[in-house]
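Re: that chain you flagged

S.,

Sorry for the slow reply, it's been a week of failed gels. I finally had a moment to sit down with the sequence you sent. For the record, here it is as I used it:
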Amino acid sequence: MLNGFLALLLCQLLGELLVLVTGMPVPGPVVGMVLLLLALIVFKRTPDSVRLVSEGLLRHLALLYVPAGVGLMVHLEMISQYWLAILVALFVSTLITMLVTVLVFRLVGKLNNSAGEP
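Prediction finished late last night. Pasting the structure tokens below so you have them in one place:
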């Protein structure tokens, strides 16, 4: 179990280092998750220790939202000043995300059909 936790932390650390070195405008943990995904694809299996730790973290995922909720309460005054801009940004980003998702699904569907898969 400790090995799985260390593997997840290593991926996050490598993601943070990549962001620091390259200056990418992406959070380090996101890059770390992509690195973890690539490792899982390359090795074509999920080690039991990583699976066990991941399931434990996912079981308590709701607790990870507490800091975000506290942050909202701490910055409530600022949010009340910029609520319209925040609302517009949320709406536009949601629409863009949905549009990109549809386009990706269509592209994957076409690629699957052209490869002769059902």
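What I noticed first: The chain is about 80% helix and 0% strand.

Talk soon,
D.
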